[in-house]
Write a structure and sequence with these properties.
The chain is mainly alpha-helical. It contains 6 helices and 2 strands, in the order ααβαβααα. It has one domain. Strands 1-2 form a two-stranded parallel ribbon. α3 links the parallel β1 and β2.
Length: 97
């Protein structure tokens, strides 16, 4: 097949991958898995959106358990919970291949 015809048949994402590097900006592991970017990044608002999904509840539960056990007062426990939640999401994002 002629290379030009092959490019025409590609979807937009595949076309973009031919000329640039695709990086995911999300907290949704399934999206990362689906689009297969070369790298991923996220931010607190994207983590918040992903944390609303029931399939990620275990990450929240783990962070809450961690926060309850680590901290002298409510503020420190909440801070530790949020830090652990960010770490949990980061770890899961790194696992996606």
């Amino acid at each position: 097949m002629d290379p030009k015809q092959n490019i025409i048949k590609m979807n937009l994402l595949e076309q973009l991958k031919q000329i640039t590097e695709v990086v995911a900006d999300t907290g949704d592991f399934e999206s990362i898995r689906s689009y297969k970017p070369i790298d991923a990044t996220t931010n607190p608002s994207l983590i918040y959106a992903a944390a609303q999904k029931p399939e990620y509840r275990h990450l929240i539960d783990n962070a809450v358990d961690f926060g309850k056990k680590n901290g002298r007062d409510k503020i420190e426990k909440l801070t530790n919970t949020m830090d652990k939640l960010s770490v949990n999401f980061g770890i899961e994002i790194l696992k996606v291949q």
